[in-house]
Structure formats: structure tokens, C-alpha cells
Amino acid sequence: MATGDRLLVGAIDFGTSFSGWAFSFKHENERSPPGATVKVWHAGTITTEKTPTCLLLKADGTFDSFGYDAEKRYGELSAQHLHSEYFFFRQFKMKLFEPFGKGIKRDMMIRDEIGKQFLAIDVFAISIKYLVEDLIKIVNQRITGELLPTDIGWVLTVPAIWSDASKQFMREAAIKAGIYNDQLRVALEPEAASIYCRHLPVDASTNESKLAISNLPIGTKYMVLDAGGGTIDITVHEVQESNTLREVRAANGGAWVENFGEQSI
Fold this sequence. Notes:
It is a single chain. It contains 5 helices and 18 strands. It is an alpha+beta fold. Strands 1, 2, 3, 6, 12 and 13 form a 6-stranded mixed sheet that branches. A hairpin with a 2-residue loop joins strand 4 (41-43) and strand 5 (46-48). It folds into 2 domains: 3-191, ATPase, nucleotide binding domain (Nucleotidyltransferase, domain 5, 2-Layer Sandwich), CATH 3.30.420; 192-260, no CATH class. The protein is globular and about 60 Å long. The chain has helices at 26-31, 68-79, 120-142, 164-176, 189-197, and strands spanning 8-14, 18-25, 37-38, 41-43, 46-48, 51-52, 54-57, 63-66, 87-90, 109-111, 117-119, 152-158, 184-188, 201-202, 211-212, 221-227, 231-239, 245-255.
């Protein structure tokens, strides 16, 4: 069964700095695309649609917390001088931004905030598993009965400029998190953004004041620039027949170094 044929599609935006999820029931999307329910995260008086991509693990490597909760918990542990007994990871997605996939291996290790090493694929898998379980918990609170795992199709977004090895690593991490391979679609972030924007009104120099990208004349080209917390993707798409798109230019871009300075692209 294809992802779009399932009762519900869950989407995970696993970002360098912030992550989040959204879901859409099949009947809702057919009636009013691109309607979706987005998780709202809370940190005191702050509410956002994404939470920091931070993972806190206990000394034995099991899950403790993620996102705002992980930041708060790690701060409390640090104040008590207990943080060294835990593993705290952030900005770890950039580990997968390696030219031509060099160094991307299933057994590679990454360092936490104080330099302790942990198996990289487990850090990604545990984070994805948390987001998956959090989404399912919210969905089951809103429906009668219980949603079966086979009822859900999953979409996991990745930067277009990543190597094939990095994209495959994310797929394997998602599978290790409990998502079946045939239920998973790994989508390029600029393509996902472009498809979404096809349903949004945009200003254009035509006879109508507002229209959607899907109504732009065939042959119209536009640029998609995804400026994220770790990488920048730039690509150009062209409107084709039958509401399809063509990639005019292969995705290009690069990484941002610390303190949001730009690395050469």
C-alpha cells in the first residue's frame, strides 16, 4: 500500500536546530489539501510549532527526554553537577552533512556536549522514535478506537544536498525507530516545500490578483530556497503539465558554520 493510500500520513521534519511533526487523515487531505494538524510545543509561556532538536539519554543509553524538555532537564542536571552522567546531543544532524558521504557508516560514533561518544544511528533512531510515538499518542486521543501501525504512512524530510549515503542513513535510522520500510517515504525538503506551495495563493503578474502555483502557466520557473538551521538548499522548479514539476537545476547549497556564519557554497 502506498503512503498516500493509508488512513493517515504522518510527516516528520527532523531539523538541525528544530524538529516537529504533522499529520493528515486521508479524507481530510482529499477534501481540503494541504490541510494538516501540526504539533504545538510548549516551553513555559512560549509556544512554537517546532521543538529544539535536542536529545537527552540516561547513563545506560536509554531515552530521558527530547526538545524543550531535554534542554530544561539538562539545565537542572548541570546545576546539580549531575549532567556528566547523562548524554546530551544537539546540532547532531550536521554529522550527516559529509561531502560525497565520506565517513557515513552504520557504526559511526558522535560526541555529546561534553565529548562522550555514542552510536550515531541510535541517537537518530531514538529521536525519531520519540517523534513517532508522540504523534501517535496525540492521534489516538482524537479518534474512537485505536490506529494500527499499518494504517499510517510516514514521510521523513531530508536536505536535497545530502549525499545518497546520508539519505540512506536516515532511512535506516527511521526503520530502527520502528517504521516499516514499505510505510516510509524519504522526501527532499525543497520538493516537499514546492508541493505544499502549489496549494497556497501567491502574487503573480497575471490577469488574476491571486492564484496558486499549480495555476501558473506551464513553463513557469521559480526558485525554492530552504534556509534551515544547518544547511541551505537552493533549487529551481518548472511547472509542467498535469500538475507536475520538473527540477530545472540540481539542488545546490552548503552548510552554515557555528554562530550562523556562512560557509562557502
